[in-house]
Amino acid sequence: MSYTLLEIAEQIGATVKGDANVSVNSLATLSRASSGQIAFLSNAKYRQQLGATNASAVILSPDCLDDCPTNALVMENPYMGYALVAQLLDTTPRPSAGIHPSAVIEPSAIIGQNVTIGANAVIEAGAELADGVAIGPGCFIGQHARIGSNTKLWANVSVYHQVVIGCDCLIQANTVIGSDGFGYANQGGQWLKIPQLGAVVIGDRVEIGASTTIDRGALDDTVIKDGVILDNQIQIAHNVVIGENTAMAACSVIAGSTEIGKNCTIAGMVGINGHIKVTDNCVFTGFAMVTKNINESGVYSSGLPVQSNKEWQKANARIRKLDSTNKKIKALEQEILALKTNANN
């Protein structure tokens, strides 16, 4: 596929500066782009690469236009422009049409129009696949699970019984939705399993990365609301609720029965405790540990930046002395107070 700059500009809402009839067929970075490719500049630290780029065109903001040696698509949000052009030039293969002969589909399953089901997939009794659903090879769809229209599952996704997934969702390979939550009762040192009787309910336009796990609820459902995006290798425990349009990066975890608000951003390796509430519009930076309710929107951090091993050893040695240092400070405060009292007398 190739598009002229004029065609792309109309698609992404940009203004062409230069030759609007130039054609491009793929995306590349500023430093690696060649003729026939389009690049973008949205991060100021890459601005020095702009002058030497060999791209046929660059998506950029108005303040960078004077430094651009080639054709430009000018818009206020170049990163959004990049996203739209990436969709336009997407090379991701489409699923093979139809139902593969090796797929196992129970007769009571309900299959909509234009559904594709890959090799060795299993669709159990009472499952419902709406129109336009794509089920990748090796997927498992449990009893009475429901998947909304135009949702796509890549290979080896497991959707347990009674899970509900909305429309226009994208679920990457090896993700598990609806597995048992971590529910056990202890009696005399022995663990008794508590059956997890809830389900998972996922809204519309949700994207879930590879090898992510979302546990079913113990009694109430685990709920992922519309527009949420989850990265790879995330753990969502039972009865968690995640509000609309919240984004969560790789390897972060949310413990059971926690509620996350709308429009939150959770960076990588963040740990969120169970049975707490986080309000809307919160940002947690990498390695943050959230242990209590967050009632005020804002940016929160607790991870320590990396330092040299020598600096870390010195700091750690001082940390070990904090208790004794604190006792010495308290003793000095008492001595000063006594001296002041004697002086006043």
From TrEMBL:
Pathway in which the depicted protein is active: Bacterial outer membrane biogenesis; LPS lipid A biosynthesis
Keywords: Acyltransferase, Coiled coil, Lipid A biosynthesis, Lipid biosynthesis, Lipid metabolism, Repeat, Transferase
Keyword Lipid biosynthesis: yes
Alphabetized Pfam families for the sequence: Hexapep, Hexapep_2, LpxD
Active site: 238
Keyword Nuclease annotated: no
Domain UDP-3-O-[3-hydroxymyristoyl] glucosamine N-acyltransferase non-repeat region: 22-88
Signal sequence annotation: none
Reactions it catalyzes: a UDP-3-O-[(3R)-3-hydroxyacyl]-alpha-D-glucosamine + a (3R)-hydroxyacyl-[ACP] = a UDP-2-N,3-O-bis[(3R)-3-hydroxyacyl]-alpha-D-glucosamine + holo-[ACP] + H(+)
EC main group: transferase
Enzyme Commission (EC) number: 2.3.1.191
HAMAP family to which the protein is assigned, alphabetical: LpxD (MF_00523)
Complex formation: Homotrimer.
Family per similarity comment: Belongs to the transferase hexapeptide repeat family. LpxD subfamily.
Protein name as it appears in the record: UDP-3-O-acylglucosamine N-acyltransferase
UniProt organism field: Thalassotalea insulae
Gene it is expressed from: lpxD
